[in-house]
Design a protein that fits this description.
Blueprint: H1 2-17, H2 57-61, H3 64-72, H4 83-97, H5 107-112, H6 114-135, H7 139-142, H8 144-156, H9 158-171, H10 176-179, H11 187-204, H12 223-228
Helix pairs in contact: 4-6, 4-11, 6-8
């Protein structure tokens, strides 16, 4: 019996020592390795901006997929693709900000020397702000946000700020939040600016502008009219 047991133990040791019968790591019975699971395996991936992912809205704006969406989207403002029409629409908007009548708009001056035209507008805007601030002493105390925004615009230059906004919106396809980044304007101000510029362009090139949006009401685009549309 002892000889048979010795033979069996010797055979088992010989088999275990061969390379073909070596145990792999996953066959070893060790309690040190604990099964690990992916915490996002069954999670919904619809929201990229969250506390779990650690992605902020500022980071998500500069991601590649949003840029691809803007490139794939067709630009409805075809008048903005041509430099001459783009400059004229902006120049007419700057002229209307000064409460100047459109009949005396210096079109030739804006076309020939647009840089000096913008410098003239900035100077007149700055004078208007300082004259208004000196006449109305309670303006800064009663409307501090409005006063600070107009003072920053007058200091940096109205045309410089709004030219950057116009380029971001009409050429690059930015939304109002991304267009006002690092600028002394708010998203509401950007939308108001775009609306007024498009209105100026619609007066001269209506076929190159998108259809004017109706805001509802008795004369607007009501639910009954929407149902009748094809």
């Amino acid at each position: 019996m002892k000889s048979q047991k010795a033979k069996r133990s010797h055979a088992l040791s010989a088999i275990q020592s061969t390379s073909a019968a070596r145990r792999h790591k996953y066959m070893e019975n060790t309690n040190q390795e604990i099964p690990k699971f992916d915490i996002h395996q069954f999670a919904r991936h619809s929201r990229a901006v969250s506390a779990e992912t650690g992605i902020s809205f500022a980071d998500y704006k500069h991601m590649h997929q949003e840029w691809r969406e803007r490139l794939q989207r067709a630009n409805p403002h075809t008048w903005a693709t041509e430099d001459s029409r783009f400059r004229e629409a902006l120049a007419r908007y700057f002229w209307s900000r000064l409460m100047m009548p459109p009949e005396i708009f210096p079109k030739s001056f804006a076309e020939v020397d647009f840089k000096n035209f913008c410098a003239l507008i900035d100077t007149l805007e700055r004078r208007t702000f300082y004259r208004r601030s000196t006449q109305n002493k309670r303006w800064r105390r009663k409307q501090p946000k409005n006063f600070a925004a107009l003072r920053a615009l007058a200091k940096q230059g109205v045309t410089r700020v709004y030219l950057v906004v116009a380029w971001r919106v009409f050429r690059l396809g930015y939304d109002s939040i991304a267009a006002c980044e690092n600028l002394p304007v708010t998203p509401v101000g950007v939308r108001q600016f775009c609306l007024e510029v498009v209105d100026e362009a619609r007066k001269w090139w209506p076929e190159m502008c998108p259809q004017k949006r109706s805001w509802g009401g008795k004369k607007g685009n009501t639910k009954a009219k929407c149902a009748s549309l094809p």
